[in-house]
Amino acid sequence: MANHVHVILRRDVDKLGAAGELVRVKPGFARNFLLPRSLAVVATDTNVKQIEHERKIAVAAAAKLKNAAEGSAAQLNGLSVEITAAAGEGDKLFGSVTTRDVSDALKKRGIELDRKHLELPTAVKALGEYDVVAKLGAGVSTTFKLVVKAG
């Protein structure tokens, strides 16, 4: 029996390695723990090639996602969105402006952006200008202006 076997990790395993890594482990650990739980596969030539192929696909998908996020950031950068709301004394709003309201205002301008990707600095309960952060994924974020006017 061999002292060690080579396996390819399918998921991250604490104190062993990250998904996609080729690691050397004892045969009993592979046979009794990693393989039955589908945490790893035996490192055959076919499996190594398949993992490399999957890694290339993942890198290409991540690059495509980042390009799309950067395109959206360029579209939002420097943008000013106006929302009209009912206000009372002291420019205080009856209610507040939420990320859903900002998302709807963007949708009217032809920009589809989920409200979960928007971050308001504070609760918008008064008229004025606010900076809204849009987190677009892949580490890309941008800021645009929100102008709340009396309506």
Provide an overview of this structure:
- The chain has two domains: 5-67, Ribosomal protein L9, N-terminal domain (Ribosomal Protein L9, domain 1, 3-Layer(aba) Sandwich); 71-150, Roll (Ribosomal Protein L9, domain 2).
- Helix content is 33%, strand content 33%.
- It has three helices and nine strands; from the N terminus they run E-E-H-E-H-E-E-H-E-E-E-E.
- The protein is elongated and about 80 Å long.
SSE order and pairing:
Elements lengths: L4 E5 L12 E4 L1 H8 L5 E3 L2 H32 L3 E6 L6 E6 L1 H10 L9 E2 L4 E3 L1 E10 L2 E11 L1
Parallel strand pairs: 4-9
Antiparallel strand pairs: 1-2, 1-3, 5-7, 6-8, 8-9
Briefly characterize the structure.
By secondary structure, the chain is an alpha+beta fold. The chain has 3 helices and 9 strands; from the N terminus they run ββαβαββαββββ. The longest helix has 32 residues, at 45-76.
**What is the radius of gyration?**
25 Å
| Number of helices in the DSSP assignment | 3
| N-to-C series of helices and strands | EEHEHEEHEEEE
- In the CATH hierarchy, what is the class of the largest domain? Alpha Beta
Number of E strands: 9
Low-confidence regions: none
Mean pLDDT equals 91
- In helices, the fraction of residues equals 25-40%
User: CATH homologous superfamily of the largest domain?
Assistant: Ribosomal protein L9, C-terminal domain
Number of domains: 2
Please state the second-level CATH architecture of the largest domain: Roll
Stated plainly, the CATH topology of the largest domain is called: Ribosomal Protein L9, domain 2
Largest sheet: 4 strands, mixed
